[in-house]
Amino acid sequence: MKIIGVGCGPGLLTAQAIKELKRARFAYGSERAIALARPFLPQNCSVKSIDDYKKLHTLSEDAVLLSTGDPMLAGLGYLKGEVIPGVSSLQVAAARLHIPLSRVSVVVAHGGGHEKGMQDTLDETNRGKIVFLLADPKFDVQELYRRLKTVPGPLQVALCENLAYPGERIAVGNIASPPMPGSALYSLVIGNF
Fold this sequence. Notes:
alpha/beta
């Protein structure tokens, strides 16, 4: 199986990913991942939306699994198979904000990991790191901001919504007046940047 990162938005597929997509016979992914890859999939490729992520390990060896962003950043890279990287939201956000990746700590707060995500964000900002936080729509951003007010020193917050899509929005504020998400597709950059 090949796990292919399709980028976090349109136009972010790598040449290697496009080459593999053009050879695909069976492709599986979320609706968003399929939409990003579809222009490069052959006409005879069987394309299916994933409805049960727990069964992905049962896909055939010749399957192509589409992962939004990069499979190794909260993606499907944990599965067995060849991983072909994609351009992640982390890379795009860092580029837009001119932040070196070496200063960034990644925190994932998806699904049941909300409390851990909040604590990891506090720990990393207290260490002076810039946090790139991937959260889902149910993550309590207001609670995170309340807790971050205890961190010493100035903290900036960048809300990155719909990165690489036509409706991309990056709003920067501080912890006293932080930007709030208006879309389900967002990430936060928190720290002194």
